[in-house]
Amino acid sequence: MKIPIMYLSPGMYVSKDIYGSRGFLLKxxxxxxxxxxxxxxxxxxxxxxxxxxxxxALIDSIxxxxxxxxxxxxxxxxxxxxxxHILGSAICQVGKLVNEIMKGNANIECLTELTSIxxxxxxxxxxVCVLSLSLGIKLGYDKxxxxxxxxxxxxxxxGKSKIPDDIxxxxxxxxxxxxxxxxxxxxxxxxxxxxxFKDHVNNDILSIILNxxxxxxxxxxxxxxxxxxxxxxxxxxxxxxxxxALISDRxxxxxxxxxxxxxxVKGLGGIKVNKNIxxxxxxxxxxxxxxxxxxxxxxxxxxxxxxxxxxxxRPIVKIFGxxxxxxxxxxxxxxxxxxxxxQDVRSILESKRYAxxxxxx
Length: 361
Ligand SMILES: [Fe+2]
Ligand SMILES: [Fe+2]
Known about the structure:
By secondary structure, the protein is an alpha+beta fold. It has 3 domains: 2-51, Alpha-Beta Complex (Molybdopterin biosynthesis moea protein, domain 2), CATH 3.90.105; 62-284, Hypothetical protein af1432, CATH 1.10.3210.10; 293-351. Helix content is 43%, strand content 12%. It contains 13 helices and 10 strands. Residues 156-157, 185, 212-213 line the site of one fe (ii) ion.
């Protein structure tokens, strides 16, 4: 499978020889290390052929391939917005994503596992699309409506392509003027789509792009409209957008731990976003199960040992490599930083030099 360089991670195996602009770089079957990734980046390699590692852990699912491909297309369009056909191709991917998510093939809880700051906007666009589609399915929408929600979500931040990089990626506080420029991205996106992609969109999609920062209490931007004028599709994308932004690393702050992000999202229900939509969203990402692996804000890795009905997002966690269990609903100083995939667990435990023999994940 061919993947963009930004999604290459240590442990993957190269399935074809790699050449850079100045010649041979890596041999087929090499297991990728961080040094290799740097080398490939330095030589301008954009795509790499990889296959699954010997444990069959990695990414060769149709869903992940679709997700990567869509991110890659969005990234290429951001790099060169004149190439309209590229964004058109990304939009065409949404139908395939709808099919895969409807089949239950999406791994919603780990959506930020591969996102880094530099890729934030493109990865975020696709992740918000997947989260919105999953929420749309929970809310019982048909396939045609899901397609609109998915396209609107994928394109919701497209106006950021017109915001200067030094403002978009500024690591310290924005001035009032800079913030007012950022706040124009919904309108800029609306104009881009109306001018260049009119054939791909309808009013529902345009409304998502234009209104995704509006809030039901009128506190949002640009127009400060309220619940009477913000449709349900837009609110679906808005809550997915907020959640994904919270759990992602940004240039100006680190990702917020999963438990904290859940608390923030809960607090928005009925105030900033329709309460039923927020409840459905929280139910949708409640994929934590007994036995799921988690990284705690304390740095410990553990598995969910018991889930408490009254506080699902603060379960009892058994810590790897010790007999310790922590009841997160009692010890509020610790939360879940992230839900982990089996590959995450392996790399974290390997880096901590834990014995992996006893792991059964
Ligand atoms: Fe936005
Ligand atoms: Fe966004």
